[in-house]
Structure formats: C-alpha cells, structure tokens
Amino acid sequence: VLELVDGESLSGLLNALREQGERLPVEVATSIACGLCRGLHAAHEARGPDGAPLGIVHRDVSPHNVLVGADGVARVADFGVALANVRLSQTRAGQVKGKPAYMAPEQLSKDEVTRASDIYASGVVLWELLAGRRAYEVANEGALYARVIAGAIPNLGEVAPWVPPPLVDAVHRALRREPIERYGSALEMAAAIEAAVVAAPAAMVGAVVERVAARTLHARRDVAARLDRGAAVPMAAIPMPPPSGPGAAQPATFVPQPPQSVRPPPVVPSDRGERGTHTITSPGPLPGGQRKTAPLVAIAIALLVAVGIGVGATWLALRGGVAASAANASSASPAPSVEVERTSTPVDTSAPSAAIAASPIESDPTAAPQATTETPRFPRPSSKSTSSAGSTSTPRPCDPPWFIDKDGIRRVKRECF
C-alpha cells in the first residue's frame, strides 16, 4: 500500500514556476534537498531481517521521483529501478537504468553503481532547484553523454550568482567526477547544505506548494473527496502532470464513453495485433485481411475436391480392370466338375427303395438297409474333359503326387515336379 501524498512532484513544481516566471527561494530549495538526502540515506542504510545491509541504490534520483507534500516534507519515491543485494541477479551487466541528465559519470559509463551515484544525482537536482533551469542545455543525447562523462557541469556560482558561495561549494562537492571525492553518505551532504545556509521550515515549504500548485491540488482533492463518498470519477477529471521537457511524452487523456448496448459486443481477433491479444469491435464487415483470404480458402477446397475425385476414379478403374481380368480367366479355364460315384454293388430288392453306399469293403447282407450316400470329389483342374456321371475316370500318374514305400513312408514322385 502506497502513501497518498497531498502535494506535487518536484518536477511539477519546477514546471509551474517556469510558467509563472519564478524560481524557488534558496531556503526552500535547500530544505527540499535536505529532505531528499535524508530519505536516500534511510534507503542506503536499510537492513534485512537478519541485520545485514540490503545495499539499496536508487539509481533514478530526479525531480520526477521527489514528492513535496503540502505539509512541507519531501519524500523519495519510485524505487522501481533500485538496486539491492537481493536483486543483483535481476540486473544485467552493462545495462543502464535511470535518466541520463541525472546520472553520475560511472553510471553512464556502465561502471559500478553505489550510493555515491545517488549523491551525484542529488547534487544535480539541487543545482537545478537553485539555478531555476536544467543543468545541461545540449542539442542531443550524444552531447549530453559526453558532458556528463567528462564531468563538465556548469559552475553554479556563474549561472546563479544569488546562491551563497558556501552553498555553491557544497553542491559542487556532490558533483565531483570521482565517486571517492564526493560525500561519504547522503546524510553528510544534508549536513553540509544546512551548514552553508539556513533551510526553510516545513510550514514555509508547504505554503509555497499550496500557492504554486493550487489548481492541481484542488482538482486532486476534489477527486479524493468524491472517491471517499463512493461517487464515480471520470478519468478526464484526474489532473495529469505536464511533460518535464520538450522531449517528454505527452500524457494520455482518457475520456469515458457511454455504454452503447447492454449486450457485450463480439470479440474479433485482431489480424495486426500481438499474439494473445484481441480487439473488441462492434458488429460490422469482416476485416480486410479476412476478405482477402476467403478466395484462397475456396480455391484450396476446390483443388482438394478435384484431387479426391481423380483418385477415386482411378481406383474404380483399376478395380474394374482387375475384376474383368478375373472374369476372363474364369471363362477360359473350365470350372472343376463334380464327379459322383455310385455303388455298383447289387442291392437287395426286398430292402427299402434306398441303395446301400458303395465302399471298398463288401456290404454285410445282414446289415440293416442304409440310405445311399453320394460322395462328391473335386478333382484337380485338367484340360481334358471329365467323364460323365457313373463312369470311372482313369487315374493320373501324379494324382496323388506321392506314394508309400515298403516301409510305410510317404515318398514324393519326382516325375511330378
């Protein structure tokens, strides 16, 4: 849970002062700078549950991340890019985080970043508070990088002659190029500032905030009061901070739209969005990309149908040819005839009008009369015509193609193979 600060960011105060043609009084500027230094010192000295130092470095100290309340207290905010011992694995080597205009030379050179880098950034912030303008007035970022790395920051005494020399010296010590030449801690820097000039009390700072940011504070307080009452607040009613410079991005303004229908509109996937995103649109014609792809889909379907018909016709033709070949083969070769052998053994006329089945063994005259059985035989196909029913066919030498020798062993007839 974040604290709701009834105030304005330091960048917002500076922009409002520039529009009004004013600058912060030296006493107010030093009071805000001392509050900034004490807040950073508390973060630098933070320890974990085990008592070990966390090694926190803000790395993005700038007027945008300093909130000055109507109570006259300056607060350090936005530790989103802060470096700590517990987050070292999440920071890639050689990766620069922060705003170049407030970075220390070692930070911009991708060297080791320590609390001395935050002290340097605090010195740049105080320089701008006292001078009433930007520390580096350059045409592009390349020139900015070159001046920061070289440590070529303008002399505060020459730019702002109204600043007392002891305070100028205190500011420029924080802006030394070598980290070891700066203050040992942010608390030491705050003490040096207070020794150079008497800082304004919190009441005086709060009065300046109320006067300079009166319109913004009034709008935000009205929104907070409506939220406390449970009333709906449109996004357009919430004041947005103005851009801090000519290159800053313009804040987006959200205008609430009235609901068009009780039923939610259909969700149509966007053909130009990122993967996993969708665009909610009202019912209407299909997107241009879908109209272009519809003929291609139809052509692909037609090709698939044509290929399927061709394959089916080919398969049917092949199947018909095979069937015709089989029919011709069956008509050319005679079907195997079924020969029925009847018994030639005389039967008893006194028995019923049924004959006794013929067999190699003579029938017993005392046996009971039995019905005559006809045993069908399916001989091997032959080019010779078979004899009619009742006649005895001549056995072929290879039917069967084996014989039984004297030892009772079945032997194959070699002439049959």
What's this, in brief?
The chain is mainly alpha-helical. It is built from eleven helices and nine strands. It has a domain at 7-237: Orthogonal Bundle (Transferase(Phosphotransferase), domain 1), CATH 1.10.510.10.
Distance between the termini: 102 Å
At the third CATH level, what is the topology name of the domain at 7-237?
Transferase(Phosphotransferase), domain 1
Helix content: 25-40%
Question: Number of helical segments?
Answer: 11
CATH class of the domain at 7-237: Mainly Alpha
Shape, principal axes of CA atoms? elongated
Tally of DSSP β-strands? 9
Note the run of SSEs as H and E: EHHEEHHHHHHHHEEHEEEE
Q: Main sheet: which strands, in order across?
A: 1-2-3
CATH superfamily of the domain at 7-237: Transferase(Phosphotransferase) domain 1
**Residue windows where pLDDT falls under 50 for at least 5 positions:** 86-93, 244-262, 267-290, 331-376, 381-391
Strand content: 5-15%
* CATH-defined architecture of the domain at 7-237: Orthogonal Bundle
Mean pLDDT: 74
Characterize the largest beta sheet: strand count, sense, and whether it forms a barrel.
Answer: 3 strands, antiparallel
Oligomerization state: single chain
Structural class: mainly alpha
Rg, alpha carbons: 53 Å
